[in-house]
């Protein structure tokens, strides 16, 4: 009898764990990935090409998101590839909405730095909407050029 009780309790705990796992947060990759590349050309010398790409991984339940970046740098001379380096990581960003729900998300990056870039590497925009309520929030993050990014979110009004 005691073994049966233990077996039933163990089965119940296993079912509870499986149910919790089934209700785990759902992550979606944004639909708007970008890539930018730059080259350093010098005749008769080493040439380097560097490409970076960004994507966003979004938790559709909590509205937390991760900004992910991958980069590849290739150095060559006129005859052969000398060096290839790649790296990447994802950085956790804060929630867009304070409460859990069912959200949709997309993001876009600004163009890479150029002569028209006043504040350094630019920034990105993030859009999130609640799939069960008429709620949309747009956020913009830009590099201030002073070491920290500035980020603001605005709730959309529906007219």
Distance between the termini: 67 Å
Strand coverage percent: over 45%
Average pLDDT value? 75
Q: Give the helix level as a range of percent.
A: 10-25%
Structure commentary:
This protein has one domain. Helices cover 13% and strands 50% of the residues. The protein has one helix and nine strands. It has one helix at 2-22, and strands at 27-29, 34-40, 47-59, 65-76, 81-93, 103-109, 123-130, 135-143, 149-155. The radius of gyration is 23 Å and the shape is elongated.
Considering the chains and any ligands shown, give keywords for the structure.
about 160 residues, mainly beta, five-stranded antiparallel beta sheet, 9 strands, about 50% strand, elongated, disordered N terminus
Task: Give the SSE layout.
Layout: H1 2-22, E1 27-29, E2 34-40, E3 47-59, E4 65-76, E5 81-93, E6 103-109, E7 123-130, E8 135-143, E9 149-155
Short overview:
The chain is built from 1 helix and 9 strands. With 159 residues, the chain is mainly beta.
